[in-house]
Each structure stands twice: as structure tokens, then as C-alpha cells.
Amino acid sequence: MQSDDAPGNLPVPMRRLVFVVTEDWFFASHFLPMARAAIGMGLSVAVVTRVRAHRAAIEATGVQVVPLEAERASLNPMAAGYAAGQLAAILKALKADIVHCIALRGILVGGTAAAMAGIPSRVFALTGLGLVGARSDRLGRAARLALRVLIRGPLASSRTRFLFENPDDALALGLDPLDRAVTVVGGAGVDPAVFVPRPLPPMPPLRVAVVARMLWSKGIDVAVEAVRLARAQGAPVELSLYGAPDPSNRRAIDETTLRGWSRDGVAWHGATTDVAGVWAGHHVACLPSRGGEGLPRTLLEAAACGRALVASDVPGCRSLVRDGVEGLLVPPEDAPALATALARLCGDAGLVAALGAAARARIETGGFTEDAVTDRVRAVWRDLLEA
């Protein structure tokens, strides 16, 4: 008879998944459902991040939070190397089985650390290429080539899996979206039971909102200019801006500029905790991004609320918005084209309603719900654990 302490009766240690993400607010706002899904699989989960105000929200899911101070805005390779060394020690101490790196800097630092710590099972979850993906000049092409070499070369292992929020980003890094090592998901997903359609407010005016961080890269200035052009042409349209500048981002719009824009049909309201309430009072979600999006959560939430979408024809936005179906796509940095699109919606309440209904249906059936996204990510983790 086998004794209780015989090897066959010893408890099997829990497998450990470690998320690496630069900012705690980013994990709290986008990836808590993913953390809960991992815990539901029986994994022990930790998040290594720069801790500010969102530790309690992350820990409430049952996740361990491990602080790592790394400045997101810094491009100093020595600082990144130092952070990678610190992170490698943390990963060893945690005895990580899988390292799940979120966003570009998380991949660069986390991938380096995982290689230093000898952990081959890695998930590189790219949430957009930022201005590296948006730039079409020689510097942009050189930066993308360098990323391609790094992410597919020294940072990767034979057990590295790639998560993308749109197929364009996979192609930009020289990866086939249909490859077994590549998974394309519907962003972070959205809960259609939380973001639900409500009756549209009366028209006119056409009420348009941008809900995003107040960054130049989001094209906030393009939206402001477009609304002023449309109003000058007699279109009854109003623009509400919801969001705060990101002090860690070099592309943040200063508050003086935002306040200066708040006139002539434009109003900056600052950050909001009631995004669903914002969409209840507006007809159209606008995101005239300059490029580099993964799959913007703001568009997912607005679509789930049954609102028409007007966005730039750039990677990420066009993965959700099909021109003339869920919304209208316009060229990036083209305020006159955006003004024309908004003026078109001003005069057609039926089109506004039809686009919003199609947007809601797209969320429900197109793989953009939290459940659909977490199902695909769980499959990636199972593949690595079985390997």
C-alpha cells in the first residue's frame, strides 16, 4: 500500500502564469477578464507591473501583483535592460511556467527577461504598433524591421505564441495571421451584458463623442477641426471629448489646449467612469486615429451600445468597422473627409440607427465579446502547458 507521502500522492504544484504589463491601469481596464479566465483554469496568476492606483482592483480577482518600476515613456535602452534584469529575477522567484507579455514595451522587456530566466513558454500580445506602425517614412520602416527581427528572433523561442488584435499588425511583423503560432483576437473584448443599446437621443443635433486618452496620436485635433468645418457648412453637429491626458505619454495633449477647444460646439469633459452613460446620450462614436491601434476598446464599447462608428481607415479600426456597414471609414488626418462623413450622418437619422444596429450585431457574432476573446486566449495557454 502506498504511503501518503509517496511520490504518487504528492500534490501537483499549480502551474503559474505571469502577466507582464507596464501600467497597472492598463491591465485593470482591459485584462481583468483574462486574469479571471486563467484562475478559472486552475492557474496561479501574477501580474508584474508599475503599481499606481489599481492594485486593489487587480488583486480582487485573486491575482498576485508584483511591483516593477519601469518608465513607459523612456526609450533609454540601458533603463530597459535594467528593468529586464530585475524582471528576470522576479520571473525566476515566481517560478513562471508561462510569461504573457502585453503591449510593445512589455514584449521587449518581458521577452528579454524570459530569455534571461530560461522560460521558453512566452505569449507576445501586441496591442498595436503605435506610431511605429503609423509612420510610412524611412524611419517607420526601419523601426518595424528592427521590431520584426527582435520579436521573431532573439526574444522568441520555439514555444512563443503571438497574439494580435488585428491581422495588419501580424503582417507588419512578417507573420502569417493563419500560422499556428499566431492568434488574432477581438481586442480585449467587451461584455455585451454591461454595454447594452439604449434609445437614441433625438436629432438634430448629431451628438458625436470621442472617448479616449487625450493624445495627439488619437487624432483628437482632427475631430475638433472636422466638427468646426461641418458646422461652418451648416451641419448641426456637436462634439464631446471624454478622457484625460496620459502624463506618461509623450503625445499627451495639454489641458490648456483641451480647454481652448471647448467652444463652438466642442466640449471637453475630462475623464469619465460612466462610458455606457456617455453613449446613451450620443449618436456616434468617433476615433480619427493617426494609426497604430490594436483594436480600440472605445469602439468596441460604443458598438456594443448600438452606436454608429466613424473612424480612420487604419489597422485596428478597420478590423471592426466595415465602411457603410457598422459605420464610416475616412482617411487618417483628413479633417475635411471626416467633416463630410459627419455631415452625411447629420441628415440621415435612419442611417445612424442602421449603422448602430449593425455595430451591435458585429459585437455579438464577430468574436468581439469578452467570452470569445478569453476562449481563444485560453486555447493558447493550454497549448503551451501541454507542450
Automatic annotation (TrEMBL):
Taxonomically, the superkingdom here is Bacteria
Q: What Pfam family does this protein match (any one)?
A: Glyco_trans_4_2
InterPro entries per the record? Glyco_trans_4-like_N (IPR028098)
- Gene3D superfamilies assigned: Glycogen Phosphorylase B
Looking at the record, the residues that make up the Glycosyltransferase subfamily 4-like N-terminal domain are 17-131
Query: What is the name of the protein in this document?
Result: Glycosyltransferase family 1 protein
